[in-house]
Design a protein that fits this description.
Length: 276
Amino acid sequence: MITKKQINDAIKKFNIKGKCIILHSSLKSFGDVVEGGPLSIINVFIDNGCTLITPTFSYEFLINPPEGKKYSRNGYDYSVKITENREIFTTNSDCISKNEMGIIPYTMLHMKERIRGYHPVCSFTGIGPFASEIIKTQKPMDVFAPLRELALFNGYILLLGVNLNKLTALHLAEQMAGRNMFIRWALNTDGLPMEVECGGCSEGFLNLDIFFNGIDKKITIGKSLWRLFPIGSLLKKTARIIQITPQITHCHDIKCIKCADMIAGGPEKYREMSNK
């Protein structure tokens, strides 16, 4: 069994007591039962005074593009229609794409003290002393605002048994490098279509690993490899790498339209749309 003491010792070794952290996680990565389950992991961080942030994306709130909104270079196949869920998202919603997000984000989202950002598709949820300050910055057309705020707090990214293709902040690095995020659609609080900003394909982020030697710290608990990155340093380094070698973020699928359109700069009408 993986014990709470092992989790607590890892936090001490990383020297992140009282720090603000975005967590990307896989409970299965431990290869063994964790004492107290996912709630226990979250509580150990909270007991150490940490502010814990996690992605709580909910793809079920996506709707089809409204008429006249077929923006070019948007990483989107407009010939494909999705089955729409006409439910309206609010920050009180507990809906989450559980299979993609994992059990730890699911558990945190269902804690009464959690704070969820206002983004129907790509929300972040936080818990801890600075959660409100970080999470409240998120808007439908400013999806990664909480990550920029986390950098201002000198925060950290913690990969708990997952790879770089789960590291959401690398999409913010793309934005910092000059790329426009993709536009998708969901219902606003009045039940009308609105544009929301989203990231693209993340499988190519695995290609960046060779550049990250010396940035991260590593600890292994059971079979789970934990990697800790200071978010500010990671963002700056990655943005520069993308500017110098744009193709580095392309995934293994040469036909991936998300990768092709993102490398080309993302939606061409982005500035016009974001000013509406």
